[in-house]
Amino acid sequence: MKNAKFSRLAVGLVALGCVWPIAAGAQDCRSQTDVCRAPQSASDWFKAGKAAVAANKLKTAKLRKAKNVILFVGDGMGISTVTAARILEGQLHGRDGEFNRLSFEKFANTAFSVTASANQQTSDSAPTATAIVTGVKTNDGAISVDQTINRLEPSAEVTAAKSVKTILERAEERGMATGVVTTARFTHATPAVNYAHISNRDWEADTNLPAGATVKDIARQLLEFPYGDGLEVALGGGRSYFMPNTAADPEYPTQKGRRGDARDLTAEWTAKYNNAEYVWNQSQFDAVNPAKTDHLLGLFERSHMRYEADRKDDAAGEPSLAEMTEKAIKILRKNRKGYYLMVEAGRVDHAHHAGNAYRALTDAVALSAAVKTAKQLTDDKDTLILVTADHSHVFTIAGYPSRGNPILGKTAVDGVEAKDSLGLPYTTLAYANGPGWTGGLQRKEFNPANEDTVSAPYAGSKLRPDLSAVDTANPNYMQEATVPMGSETHAGEDVAIYADGPGAYLVRGTLEQNAIYHIMAEALGWSGRR
To answer: Are the C-beta atoms of residues 142 and 151 closer than 8 Å to each other?
Structure first.
């Protein structure tokens, strides 16, 4: 009986990230004489994440398994972003924004995810996304390789030895269908962790690799994916990383591809697979028949896809995140063994980096619409849907505005604008750092034409601009930032996990981010298998 109690205690403590020497025996890890430390290797991280799920299993009766898993990632969608997006969506539809809920906020189970990576207190997307899909925490910049790899490791042999297998690869090994959908470049960090293994997230095309490198670039790894029959769905941006630098872009004919190896990976996609399609615009996408298409590659921009707010301005047309999600599910669900699908709202992150709350929030609302679409196309009895973020941003909701005050507006109480100590109005939303800094009597606005900044009028001569005549709800308004930065930074606080369907009961408490992989694996019935 004593041994059984200790086993349960050990599982619980390891789930909390506590590891102690064997000599500590049955002593409580929380006592002053014990060592409580974070996992130190890929193996430790994997075991700790698995143990966290095992600890949750001890408290709940065994429930049905999942046939399918859909993982939604709002890149940079911290809790303040979810709150502000919830309010904005409600206000845009004439509802009480504070009482409104995004589609995934109605899910039955929630938890906190600790986003610190193996070597960072505040992380970038590469190690956080790697943790989610492999069960292993790693270092900054690393794509599905362990924390012992050198950030600039050029060797294919060394990279292979330090690679950690992803849930998508395991799904393909089991004969399942797989897909990834993103509004970012398909070779960007979060989508790439599913199918690529490389030490540096920036090595997206062969021309990005250092001289003499033998490791394959990220785009090439998609086409040379060795598991199962390859990804069934790959939708996003980043077309130029798949095209040779001698070929003109179909949408922007004055610009060419980035590849120096003369390979056209888009053509190789259709040649490699049966019943395969490659599309790059809305009309081609709409024409794809899921019943007759087994492998779909869609690359809708040279780089990242447009923000949701700007999608209407794209001449060639781009599908929404919800439309891509729908097409993906309809292709993947043909597989009787089930499927794994990641859907990323990648540009929430980019808008925050740009200090532009409007585009960050409207892309988060677009993610909510995609989750709603997925719920309508699936069954709670066999499909686990998870919604989470890889990390947060230094995005704040402040002041004491009255309920119903426009979330993008200036802080007001009962209709009367609040003033700072300089006697100036201020907005409810702001950033702790970023390009929206207004020191030096200068102010900027977002320029959607090139997704950069443009100078804006600075009213007054005080240390902050007078915003009295500024429309802060304008989509191009950049919220003020306290510390000047060329790009706003990520934040280190926990993010949320929302879950519905088989295995959702495992999502509760505060979990290390790598436990998300183990939740998905457990839900699919892969317990005990790496």
So the answer is: yes
